[in-house]
Amino acid sequence: MKILFIIVGDFSPVSGVGRTCYSLAHRLARDREVTVVASGNYRGEEERIKFLQAPFWHPGKAWEFFLPLPVIWNFLLAGVLCRHYRKRFDIIHVFNGLVWSKNALITLQMCQKGAFRAAWGKSFREQLGKKTPKHLSILFLEWLIYRWQLFRGLVVCSRAERDEIIRYYQTDSEKIHRLYNGIDLISLSPGEVNLLRTARRNELGYRESDRVCLFVGYDLKRKGFEAVLRALARLPREYKLLVVGGGDKKGDFRRTIVGEGLESRVRFAGQQHNPSPFYAAADLFILPTLHEPFGTAILEAMNWGLPVITSRLAGAAELITPGREGCLLDDPRDGRAIAAFVRQIGEEGKAAEMGAAGRETARTSTWERRAGELLDLYRRLV
Q: What's the CA gap between 210 and 95, in Å, rounded?
């Protein structure tokens, strides 16, 4: 079986759909030849991965983030590549992009229509007039591709994302295939994890009595950061909040942090290519996201043995049994409920039990297993 991956972006293990493609390609390439077409450069050691560079447009200047030109260019280029390679490969799989091709599988990054509605809590019509030309072009292409099913198959990372596509675009459910995201299991023993925890907490200035709540996410508003701050204000002072990500948006929440007197209890660690030491330093993980196709950070927290508090709107919540690996929020904006769950985990001594259950669930969610599931899908389609 000859497989072609087209990535509308870089072939990189850092984050997002690029990381998904990178992880799957390296697993599949162990037994077969995989060709990857993407922007950027790849100098990996995997001999069975053939890399071809393509000029996908990454918005870098301010005006590029608002105009539809990069979106349209990438849409057209991906379509041309699919047509050019259609007779050379058994499977053409496009990641992180919109493409019109009856020959291609598409991995959906996020249903933008669903994300717009979730983020602002208003009707789609109310928000439509406030969108930039870039957003409007994405919405049009989503409607064109998914409503009229201009693809071979659509790969989504959760049942919730599948249901959104069906609800908004009436896509045939038989053409939608679910593939959860995966992780690389940590290779440390429990003793080594404890040593790393102590060292990392010392580096960050946390005391043993501190209860460190970890939040990982770039889009703070969509990830429910405001609710986490409201919850922290209801908790005793030994509870601290460690934030990985946030970009340049942390200033948007300055008023809440100051108003609630949380300046000494919230630490922003910024963007991290390797967030593993921060998972090691934490006692529990909180991500009350308003809209999340999957949320790999949730699975990574479970991998590190952290109890998880997240919302039912996260795709990864489908892997969590409430009360076993963590707690699920019905309303991600409810800071009172978040604080109650944090107290419940701490006061009832459930952290260790939930952490152990989370590690067991994480062991069933490796990239090796996901690559096998994807290969089974390919075989059904060929």
A: 41
